[in-house]
Amino acid sequence: MTRYHANEVVTPGVYFDARHLRFRNQEEAGRLPDDGGVYRRVPTVVLLIAGPLIGLAYVVFLPLIGFIAVGSLIVETVRDRLRPGSRESAAGSSKEERKGLFARLRRRGRHKAA
């Protein structure tokens, strides 16, 4: 793949800037943005193959990450409940401690918004 520097005249196509991790669709011949990036032209065949693979990875791993997050939350909660005298849980084990935690979070949110 040929490298193109910022503000260089290029033909229409899709260009990838590795420094800023972004794609640039150049619809007509012209200059690339003058942002200091180094662009590489991405062949259309690569885009046709990579697009569905990225979509497949999204469809497979997004639910998997959700199941892992919920599973780890359940495991931590059970572990904290079974360990006597443990204070590692952020929410605590009593209703009063949880109320205190939520009150602190609400106060913190008000200060950030102001």
What are the salient characteristics of this protein?
alpha+beta, elongated, two-stranded antiparallel sheet, 114 residues, 2 domains, 6 strands
Major β-sheet annotation = 4 strands, antiparallel
Compute the number of strand runs: 6
Query: What would the principal axes of the Cα set say about the shape?
Result: elongated
Cα distance spanning the termini = 50 Å
H/E series, N to C?
EEEEEEHH
Quaternary: single chain
Which strand order do you get reading across the main beta sheet?
Answer: 1-6-3-4
Low-pLDDT regions = none
Total of helices: 2
Helix content: 40-55%
Return the average pLDDT rounded to an integer: 83
Q: Approximately what portion of the residues adopt beta-strand conformation?
A: 15-25%
Please, how many domains? Answer: 2
Rounded to an integer in angstroms, the radius of gyration calculated over CA atoms is 25 Å
Structural class by SSE content: alpha+beta
